[in-house]
Structures are given as C-alpha cells and as structure tokens.
Amino acid sequence: MLAPATTGCVYHDTCIKVTSPGHDWCRNLVFAEQWPIGSSFDEAVPILRPDGGVPRGCRCYNDAETQIFEDKAPACRFEAFLDELELAARQECQSLVMPGYDHNCWTSVGMQASIAETHFPDGVGTCIGNCEYGGPPIGGSCPDPNPYECATGGGSDGGCASEGGDETSASDSGLDDTGSDTSGGMLLDIDALIACVELDCEVDRALARQLYVDPSPLLEQGTVLVHVAKLQRHVLQGVEPDSIVHALGLRSGDRLESVNGIVIRDLDSALHAYVQLGDATTLEVRIKRGSQWLDFTYTLVP
Fold first, then answer.
1. How many CB atoms lie within 10 A of CB 188?
2. Which of 33, 161, 171, 218 counts the most CB atoms within 10 A of its CB?
C-alpha cells in the first residue's frame, strides 16, 4: 500500500503519519514613516511594501496556537504571540526603509509612533498545524501526538506559568510536593518585579543584585550579547517575549552603546563597566535600534 502524498513518515503499511498545514497570523504596522537623515519628521513619507501595503509581520502557528488566537486564552500565551507578530512587523518595516533615511519603525509611543494593528489570520502557512497516524497495526495502536510533537517530536506545548494551579503541575514548574525549587532556576513574577513607563523602568533591587552575581537565568531564557567585531559593539540576540530582558524594553537586534556613560566597545570595557557599576542604584543604558537611539533608565527599588 502506498502512503498518501503528504509530508510525513511511513512505517511499512501501518501508522502512516499525515500532516495538515498551520495558519499564518499577521499584524500591520500603520503610521510607519521615513525621512532623510538630518531633516525633520515634517518631511516624512510612508514606508510601504512593494505592493503598496503597509509593513506587515506574519508567522505560522499550529492548530493549538491558532485556537489561542481565537480564544485569546491563556492570556500569557496570547500576549506573547501578539508581541512576536509586532516584532516581525517592526523588523519588516526596518527592512523597507530607503538608504539614507531615518524612520519610526521602532517607535511605539508618542506623537511620532508607528502602531501595530489588531492581529488577523492570513491563510494557510508553511508550518505543520496538526498530524495524525492512520492504519494501526493489528492488535496495536498508533501515537496520538499533539500539534507541538507533530512539528518537533517534543511534547512541549509552550504553556504559561500557572496563576491558579490549573495549568502547570508541580513537576512541570520545577517544584516538589513541598513547594521547594528543584529545577535550580528562578521562578519569577516578572510583572511584579519590573515596571516600565516608556523608557523609564523600576526594577526590584533583589532581582537586579541576584542577576549581577549570577546572570545564568538570562542565558537560560536564550538571551545573549554577541560582540560584532565590525561594529565594535555588542548586539542582543534571543530576546523572547516572556523573558526578563524583554520586560526591560529591550529587543533582539538592539546594539548596546553605553551604560552610565561607559561605552561598551569590547570585553575589556564590558568588564570595566561590570566592576564600576556593582553598587549603582540607577542605570542609564543607551542602545541603538535600527537607526534610532534609545536611552533607557533603570532604577533599582526595594
């Protein structure tokens, strides 16, 4: 017997894996403008795609994730997906800026902001949406994978941290039956520890000191600073929507310029800043996002 003409694996004549495609979801970025470097915003013109549309960010999601878009729940996953689509839209915007022009692709607040619109479905995507196995062996059965296993072979569903104990078990959260931390990681309520208004943030002092002594939780979340020799600067990579660094307002692609006036050019200057700023209660961090300079203020609070 021949397998259907679909993507998947065939185990002889039994347990034939049949996959279905996922769905693209998108967000448009409106009021995106560009203007010649050195001129004013009054000379700005719209940033448009070749087809005349505004910049758009899209990503393919599986069937379980599409259900999250439709239900808007669980809230933490839904908000994370919206952040992913906004990031994609702003990256698309920057890629469309003409050489020699400044832009507002990364400006999200104020009179000159570009705005990410409501999300919307945009047809069939290129990822795997779901899968199932047909033709079980005599006296046996086939796997019953979830959409995440269909794509990766792993069982993670990217669930949220439990707010009421219904979504995350003790073993999943890294806690034993007594509530002790067994994972060696940090269990954090980021919203309670970091509060930002535009570029000004208040950060829990205990959290900041803990990360100063041991920054491994940032690495566990995938965030890294990569030194780019050509630029003589460090660039952030791997900033996920639900991470500590994301909560601080920073994004993948941000180029670190200085901290409290100390320019971070290389490893030596980074180590110098690390030593000098150990007792600081306020951090002034300058980064470059695209062609735009942003100055963040982080105040450590009890």
1. 16
2. 33
